[in-house]
Amino acid sequence: MSAFPCSDDVLPESVVVLPLPEVADQIGLAVTRVHQMLRDHQLLALRRDGVAGVPERFFDETGAVVKSLPGLITVMKDAKYTDEEILEWIFTDDETLPGKPIDALHGPLAREVLRRAAADPF
Hints:
alpha+beta, four-stranded mixed β-sheet, 41% helix
């Protein structure tokens, strides 16, 4: 089994990051399955203070992965964006949404976020 991808921490300290074992507990899977989700680009991880984790905002109020997130990651990976660039874009304020793309993924603007990512996020 290959190692899972893990980005440098490019996010503000205000972004809560959950360690992978906590992510596994939250979604009811083994941590090795979370590693596979990272390899399959269904989630993105970053290393903060030496610990691999996933941003808490990647999950909805039930603890499940936000529905549109895997599709957004796929669209941006297909456009050759790095994991760090994807994380930065998802957590960067966009006055026209309004807010951050990650916030819009939790509401009715999820399709608009996907459209913008497909068009040219940066």
